Fold this sequence. Notes:
Number of strands: 10
Distance between the termini: 40 Å
Largest sheet: 6 strands, mixed
Helix content: under 10%
Strand order of the largest sheet: 2-10-9-4-5-6
Shape: globular
Amino acid sequence: xxxxxxxxxxxxxxxxxxxxxxxxxxxxxxxxxxxxxxxxxxxxxxxxxxxxxxxxxxxxxxxxxxxxxxxxxxxxxxxxxxxxxxxxxxxxxxxxxxxxxxxxxxxxxxxxxxx
Length: 115
């Protein structure tokens, strides 16, 4: 069974940055697409970003374009989400997942953007 463990969240002021990490416990890590999704208080899951298996082709929700960067290190079975210029509306529980809908997501890491 694949396990995903997210980390790196925290409290940050508007305009600040955070780098989220997700370690995936599966030897076929490099064969998988990976996703970041988030859930804001009182709202449903929202897809944030995707990265493909090998060449690192990425895609982003409009809310993340120009501010967030997804990347992966196949040698470390880890996917990252660099988040810059954070806004209060980015406050959410962030998950890495095996599908844009949040399949197989871990326990999440909380990001709170507040002054």
